[in-house]
């Protein structure tokens, strides 16, 4: 069953699932040693979280929140990776499972983390996932393991990923960009359908789609 939800646009502590039920969330907006840090915690139930310590640097603050979540099954999203850490420092985001991708700079930080082998998944727009048994717990699992797409007005009618590659189909002609290690654009194509076959050594593969209807992104699939 296709389930959608929008964690980034939630306005209270509840993220509604299209299948029914909800996730709990809390946003943290801290200043850490003069740097703004915006976080979002997503879980199944309310969790007691630490308070900000203004003199603490961002990596220390992240470590304290990650520690508070340990064993809870909740996920931590860093909503502003470029401004909170930036290129060259993004690997300090130890234990962070999700990045908010709002700008090209955020995307570049994401690619840097992915290139280092970090299993971090990107959040933007509406989250869409296929769940065999729709529930809040399965929605959290989809987020944790990157089994979802991000959509802004554009949804695939087919998206199949396996160990050999990825195949897609859309209702109308769509531009596809295949992105691999280092944020390198390995291929571009246009059409209502297409595929990418792994060649080995990509590190990871993710695909960005765009059409007049909107945009859509897959999550990275790690490739040896």
3D structure, described in words:
The protein is an alpha+beta fold and 224 residues long. It has 2 domains: 2-127 and 136-143; 153-223, Immunoglobulin-like (Sandwich). The chain is built from 4 helices and 15 strands. It has helices at 58-69, 81-84, 104-115, 136-144; strands at residues 2-5, 14-16, 22-32, 35-43, 75-78, 98-100, 121-123, 126-130, 149-152, 158-161, 165-180, 184-197, 203-211, 214-217, 221-223. The strands form 2 sheets. Strands 1, 8, 9, 10, 11, 12, 13, 14 and 15 form a 9-stranded antiparallel beta sheet that branches. The relative contact order is 0.13.
Features:
224 residues; Immunoglobulin-like; 43% strand; 17% helix; 9-stranded antiparallel β-sheet; 6-stranded mixed β-sheet
Give me the secondary-structure topology.
Layout: E1 2-5, E2 14-16, E3 22-32, E4 35-43, H1 58-69, E5 75-78, H2 81-84, E6 98-100, H3 104-115, E7 121-123, E8 126-130, H4 136-144, E9 149-152, E10 158-161, E11 165-180, E12 184-197, E13 203-211, E14 214-217, E15 221-223
Parallel strand pairs: 5-6, 6-7
Antiparallel strand pairs: 1-8, 2-3, 3-4, 4-5, 8-9, 9-14, 10-11, 11-12, 11-13, 13-14, 13-15
Please summarize what this structure is.
With 224 residues, the protein is an alpha+beta fold.
DSSP summary, beta strand count? 15
Order of helices and strands: EEEEHEHEHEEHEEEEEEE
Q: Please give the radius of gyration in angstroms.
A: 17 Å
Shape: globular
Largest sheet at a glance? 9 strands, antiparallel
Structural class label: alpha+beta
Q: How large a portion of the residues is in β-strands, by DSSP E? A: 35-45%
Mean pLDDT across the residues is: 97
Q: Helix content range of the residues, please? A: 10-25%
Question: What number of structural domains do the residues give?
Answer: 2
Number of DSSP helical runs? 4
Distance between the termini: 30 Å
- Low-pLDDT residue intervals, each spanning 5 or more residues: none
